[in-house]
Amino acid sequence: MHVVRLLRVVLHLFAGLAISAFVYPLIGEAGRQAQIRRWSMKLVALCGVEVETRHAAGAQPAPRALIVANHISWLDIFVINSLQASRFVAKSDIRDWPLLGWLCEKAGTIFISRGRVRDVRRIYEGLVTSLHAGEHVAFFPEGTTGSQGSVLPFHANLFEAAIEAEVPVQPYALRYVDAQGRLHPAADFVGDMTFVQSMLTILKARGMKAELTILPIIETAPDSHRRELADAAHRVIESALSAGEKV
């Protein structure tokens, strides 16, 4: 059965290539975002993953914000895009993934190379420009995927973009669970696992649900410090995930 699901996913990827090449040039930004949302929702569904969006008390998606989330899997981008089409910052390795890397690039993903200070500066300036233009921008401040059950320390550099663009930080907490509400091991994309191996593991899995919790915004001010914003985002995301595990 998972072979049939894999074939459907591959066909959907090719459909995404066609949309990017022939439809994107003919539609505006609003139409492009709608296409990204619909395509992402279908990809996640084809992978057999249900998405449940939750709202913490008093939390609503901000119209303009720098979105940050914990990072578990390559699926994270598409789970978030199924709710809100966003321009992501992602490590440059993703560009080399079969089909999906090219699609991420066409969807506006900004690729960053590890350890290159000039790259960080270039991307930071691009984020500020995008936020000023009203685009939704998202990144994973852990800088890499981590096993579920823990949140790695957050890198603070790109939080500066929210301060300069005068927009709040919008934290999202993300986890993947089974039918009993336990963390689903098939979601973990860590170590030497390749993208293809991860996709096959997810396609073979059953009953996986992505729980995406929207958390209250963290306001910024001209005198805010990026480290303080990163620490605040880490605390609320880690707290939300810990609370979810106790349910």
Automatic annotation (TrEMBL):
Chain coiled-coil ranges: none
Domain Phospholipid/glycerol acyltransferase: 65-177
GO molecular function, one term: 1-acylglycerol-3-phosphate O-acyltransferase activity
Transmembrane segments: 6-27
Record's keyword terms, sorted: Acyltransferase, Lipid biosynthesis, Lipid metabolism, Membrane, Transferase, Transmembrane, Transmembrane helix
One Pfam family in the UniProt entry: Acyltransferase
Family annotation (InterPro entries): Plipid/glycerol_acylTrfase
Top-level taxon: Bacteria
Pathway field: Lipid metabolism
A biological process from GO: phosphatidic acid biosynthetic process
Official protein name in the record: 1-acyl-sn-glycerol-3-phosphate acyltransferase
Species, as recorded: Noviherbaspirillum cavernae
